Amino acid sequence: MPARDEEGTVGNVVARLLDAGLGWVRVVDNGSRDQTVHAARSAGADVYSEPQRGYGRACWRGLQRLPAGCQWVLFCDADGSDDLSQLPDFFAAAAKSDFVLGNRRCGSRHEAKLGWLQHYGNGLATALIRLGWGHRYFDLGPLRLIRRDVLEAMEMKDRTWGWTLEMQVKALEGRLRVTELPVNYLPRQGGESKISGNLMGGLRAGWVILWTLGGLYLTRGRRLAGS
Length: 227
Known about the structure:
alpha/beta
């Protein structure tokens, strides 16, 4: 769970994850200036530090030195916007999947809680994935469950907001069994968003996602040309 300046929400998210049956939760502090680290540790999380900011960088840091018995990795946000009551649906879907992710764009009342830039940006990105790889995703949502072995085989490169997109494209290239579930998207429970409600943040994230997608297209084209 990447977290930056989420002292008001991260503790509750950690507690809910532990209550849901997860035996171990890792929070990656991504340069917080508040009491995020204290709140996460007090709630029972293992806390790593990644001072260099970047969503993908924080996710990558959290994957280092995982416990030997860890077979699945769950990603979620620290702001309380993920509806963790739906985790049993993820665990059930995992029985026949390698990669399970949540779709926040599955109905108008949930879409309304996404910023308009997030909503249309994710729609554009997933449409471009379908054009290039032939699979229709609906969202690039943060709530996702993936087998550890296939995630490690992906050798993720992105260290920014392109992390989620890269994972979804590489899941298709690796022919993983992918399940996308409709999920509730809740209002942020505290703190300030780094993307939604922040026009410049949203534009920067959107540009990074499209740049990442362009690189993946280029890599795919070179691979096809060499085959």
